[in-house]
Amino acid sequence: AQSVTQLDSHVSVSEGTPVLLRCNYSSSYSPSLFWYVQHPNKGLQLLLKYTSAATLVKGINGFEAEFKKSETSFHLTKPSAHMSDAAEYFCVVSVGGNEKLTFGTGTRLTIIP
Amino acid sequence: EAGVAQSPRYKIIEKRQSVAFWCNPISGHATLYWYQQILGQGPKLLIQFQNNGVVDDSQLPKDRFSAERLKGVDSTLKIQPAKLEDSAVYLCASSSWDDQETQYFGPGTRLLVL
């Protein structure tokens, strides 16, 4: 079975400071990992994905994530937060090329002006 | 490239009424998914279609939910009769044959059952 755990339900940072959203995964096989963002009343948008190539993955809007197998983690980071980053972020796992996605419970990111 | 389209965007009904949602995937995408997202939770897969065939409907409450994708393009999801606990956002997603792991989501339909 596969699962992801998002360690923080809510993160608040000041504009211009770094963002760290934490995600741990559990999988019996080599996982594919994703981060999706959901702005209010909008659909889910893919930020980035890891599929066993480079462990440091760069995504859109300045976000990146690092796959650490030894720590079973896939944390999302951004060097400098922008007001437009305020949204809900979901860590997602799929296994073995199976397109079935398992979502975490989400982390709400608030940006303080 | 047009994204995944869904309608309606919002729907309010009373319990025991029926409701239907429509989804048009990205052109050429063979795989279509319906998810249910309850407030404060991540999306949960209800049903997955490959062209017009069902691949996975293990999480679909079949006593009240039904879905179809008759011509392998657009799809409808129906709830009959609705219960209070069906209040949620219903998301449609699609993926292409050569990259089925990457799913593209529509804006969702927000359902409120009173």
Keywords:
A: mainly beta; globular; B: 114 residues; mainly beta; 0% helix; 54% strand
Blueprint (SSEs and pairs):
The complex is a heterodimer of chains A (113) and B (114).
Chain A: E1 3-6, E2 10-14, E3 19-21, E4 23-26, E5 31-38, E6 44-50, E7 56-58, E8 64-68, E9 73-78, E10 87-95, E11 102-103, E12 107-112
Parallel strand pairs in A: 2-12
Antiparallel strand pairs in A: 1-4, 3-9, 5-6, 5-10, 7-8, 8-9, 10-11, 10-12
Chain B: E1 5-7, E2 10-13, E3 19-24, E4 31-37, E5 44-50, E6 53-56, E7 65-68, E8 75-79, E9 88-96, E10 99-105, E11 109-113
Parallel strand pairs in B: 2-11
Antiparallel strand pairs in B: 1-3, 3-8, 4-5, 4-9, 5-6, 7-8, 9-10, 9-11
Question: In brief, what are we looking at here?
Answer:
The complex is a heterodimer of chains A (113) and B (114). Chain A has no helices and twelve strands.
* Rg estimate of chain A, integer Å: 13 Å
Which stretches of chain B are low in confidence, meaning pLDDT under 50 for 5 or more residues running? Answer: none
Task: Count all strands of chain B and give the number.
Answer: 11
Biggest interface reads: A-B, 22 and 24 residues
Assembly type of the chains comes to heterodimer
Which whole number gives the mean pLDDT of chain A?
91
* Rg over C-alpha atoms of chain B, rounded to the nearest angstrom: 13 Å
Major sheet characteristics of chain A: 6 strands, mixed
The number of distinct β-strands of chain A equals: 12
Strand content of chain A: over 45%
